[in-house]
Structures are given as structure tokens and as C-alpha cells.
Specification:
Arc Repressor Mutant, subunit A; 10 strands; Alpha-Beta Plaits; alpha+beta
């Protein structure tokens, strides 16, 4: 039986969770979910957008891009080119996610010095200052390791006079996202309609499909944009249109590195932790931001956001109480220099972790992996003609 929402604050929290999974949900659907009038739903929607400075943006599955970049190459190159001249004629396909941790041995560069050294590359998406064993963290996206290595060499040359070491990790994302720069999305080698749609959604995830089509170079019609939207969803490239908070209420952002020391003990406690994660999401607003596996040392990284320092310490204590066979290192993100953490109030039932628990029959099975909402041409309409 659906939970009865008692007051406006509860309804605002519910709107945040609904929009985190489908930010293009129409006002009519929001009203139906809240069991209020469309006018009331619209007012609550406007309140949460203003209060948290919501930015609506696509969550893109970078790991799936290579498949559809290859499809484009296969359609635009002859068999001879693909089979005989692939090195010269077919560019690299796909992108990978990386984290670089920087540790300076003596003096640490100022914010403007580091950003100048990073230059105008499309690869860095998020940069922050750390408190802990490292001084800075850089999350970046590149086509291959050698691009990252070349990028680091160039940064080192520009930071001449500063001595530093790096820890470079390739990531295998399990949950969450970092908002991507439009400059990166424009590097995707997809068909124009798909690429223009992703760029348009990145500028404003609730823009009408007609608006996005008109602003594209080829003036694509709304019907084509709607088809492209559905195709991107089905292929898994577009996980969802979601949001990130420009003014989050949380004040402590952190990175937690978990290194496996005893694989058997770790695996025995992993399911228990996922149960704790899914059970607690309703009470702990916005804690989980991004989780990914790393290979050296074997383990994973968690990016978190907390209301205060006490909550952060309690979270680490909970981790230590549940996880066995691991070493846990905690870092505080003291200042964001570029980009945003993808902070949102996400419904944990739509995660891969919940899906795993479903297979083990440890949690109730959802009737669908995505909420039953259709693509909406204009999600902001609130009158009787609003599309369903």
C-alpha cells in the first residue's frame, strides 16, 4: 500500500526522489504520485527547484558508448576499411573513467595554478581539494590510458617547480554519476540526432524536445528527438534524466577508499552492507553520491555527502562494523575547484545493488526496473493538455 504523505516537507522529499529517477516526469504524473492537484504539484516542484538549485541533466552510461560508436563506424565505413585499414580509418571507440590523486611533497599549488595547469582539456570533469593522505582529486574521462598519461605529463610540465606523485585508478562505476561537461559530450562519436539530444539535455534536462531540436544544427523535429530519446534509453546509454543539487543542504563531502585485505571475509559482509545501504536511504538524505570498483589496491571508492561531521564519523563507524577483511581510509573534500558532485536524493531501489538483493530474494521485487512513465515532450505543462 502506498505511503500517505502527511505534510509539505514529506511531499518535497518525495518529489526529489521521483525526479532523481525521472527528472522529465510531467507535472501531471507528479500530482498523481503525490495525490494532490496539478497546481499544488507544480508549486511544490518550483519550491524544490529553487531551494536546492536543481540542475536537470542526463546520467550517461559511459561504459556503453563504445557499442554505439562502433555501430556508427560500421555504417559509415566500408568492410574493406574496417577489415584492412582499421588503424588508419576507424578512430578509437568508447570512453573510460579515471580518478587521479595528487600528493605534493613540499609546497602545494594554489587553486588558480592547478586549474591553469589542467588547461582547457575536455577530460577533467571534477576537481577538488582533499584533506588526508592526498592534496587533490581529479575525476576525468578519456578514450584510453595513454590519453590520461599524456595529460598527466603535460600537467607536470605546467606545474614545474612543484614536486608531486600521482595515484591513477581506472574506475568501474557501480552507482551514481559526476555531471559531465558539454565539451566532453561533444566528443562522443554518435549519430547527430543522438548527440544533439544529449547535448541539449545536458544544458537543460527538462527542456522540450522541440526546443532541443530547433537549437541543433540540423533543426531536428520533435518526433525524431522523441525517437532518439527512447532509443538512448533502450540502449542503456541514457540511464535516466536526473538532477544534481547546486545548493545541497549537506555540508561535508567525503571520499572513502576501501581496500580488500581478506577477500573471503569481504565477500561475506558485502551483502550485509548493501542491505544496510538500501534500508537506510529513506532516513539519510543524499548520503550516497558515487561508488566504483578499483583494482590497485583491490577494493572500491565511495563519494559521500553528509549533514555534518558527526554523521560522517558515524558512517565510517558503521562501515567498520559491517565490513570485514578491509582497510578503510577517509578523506574530506574541502573545496570543489571544478564541476559538481552528483548530489541528489536518489531512490536506492533503482540501483544495481538493489537488483543484486532482488536476485538473492532479500528485498521485495520491483515490478519494473524503471518507473512507468513515458517520454514527455514538455514535462513542465500543468494544464489539461499536458501529455501523459
Amino acid at each position: 500500500m502506498p505511503r500517505v504523505l502527511k505534510n509539505r516537507e514529506e511531499m518535497k522529499t518525495e518529489v526529489l526522489r521521483l525526479l532523481s529517477v525521472d527528472a522529465r516526469m510531467s507535472i501531471r504524473d507528479l500530482a498523481a504520485a503525490l495525490k494532490v492537484s496539478k497546481a499544488t504539484a507544480y508549486n511544490i516542484f518550483q519550491e524544490v527547484v529553487k531551494e536546492y538549485d536543481l540542475h536537470f541533466t542526463p546520467e550517461i552510461n559511459i561504459g556503453e558508448l563504445w557499442r554505439y560508436e562502433f555501430v556508427k563506424q560500421a555504417r559509415t565505413h566500408s568492410k574493406k576499411e574496417i577489415l584492412e585499414d582499421i588503424v588508419d580509418t576507424v578512430p578509437l571507440i568508447g570512453f573510460e573513467e579515471y580518478v587521479i590523486l595528487l600528493k605534493f611533497s613540499k609546497k602545494v599549488p594554489k587553486e588558480e595554478q592547478l586549474l591553469k595547469a589542467l588547461g582547457d582539456s575536455f577530460m577533467p570533469q571534477f576537481v577538488a581539494r582533499l584533506r588526508g593522505n592526498y592534496d587533490f582529486i581529479i575525476y576525468l574521462v578519456a578514450r584510453e590510458y595513454y590519453e590520461v598519461a599524456s595529460f598527466l605529463i603535460d600537467v607536470g610540465k605546467k606545474l614545474k617547480g612543484f614536486q608531486f606523485t600521482t595515484d591513477l585508478q581506472r574506475l568501474d562505476r557501480g552507482y551514481g554519476f559526476f555531471p559531465l561537461k558539454t565539451e566532453l559530450i561533444k566528443q562522443f562519436n554518435l549519430f547527430d540526432t543522438y548527440l544533439n539530444l544529449l547535448v541539449g539535455l545536458n544544458e537543460n534536462g527538462r527542456a522540450t524536445l522541440s526546443e532541443i531540436g530547433r537549437e541543433s544544427k540540423k533543426k531536428t523535429g520533435s518526433a525524431q528527438m522523441l525517437y532518439a530519446y527512447e532509443r538512448l534509453k533502450k540502449t542503456g546509454i541514457l540511464q535516466r534524466v536526473t538532477y544534481y543539487e547546486g545548493k545541497p543542504k549537506n555540508v561535508v563531502d567525503a571520499m572513502i577508499q576501501i581496500s580488500i585485505t581478506d577477500h573471503y571475509a569481504y565477500q561475506q559482509s558485502k551483502t550485509k552492507w548493501h542491505m544496510e545501504m538500501v534500508k537506510g536511504y529513506e532516513k539519510r538524505h543524499n548520503e550516497y553520491t558515487y561508488m566504483c570498483d578499483i583494482s590497485s589496491p583491490l577494493g572500491f571508492l565511495m563519494f559521500m555527502s553528509f549533514d555534518n561531521g558527526d554523521d560522517a564519523e558515524k558512517f565510517v563507524d558503521r562501515l567498520k562494523a559491517v565490513y570485514k577483511g578491509v582497510d578503510i581510509t577517509y578523506y574530506t573534500l574541502t573545496e570543489v575547484l571544478m564541476g559538481h558532485l552528483g548530489i541528489r536524493d536518489f531512490d536506492m531501489r533503482y540501483t544495481g545493488q538493489y537488483q543484486m538483493l532482488e536476485r538473492l530474494k532479500l528485498v521485495p521485487r520491483l515490478s519494473t526496473r524503471q518507473p512507468k512513465t513515458a517520454a514527455v515532450e514538455n514535462p513542465n505543462l500543468q494544464d489539461e493538455e499536458a501529455p501523459i
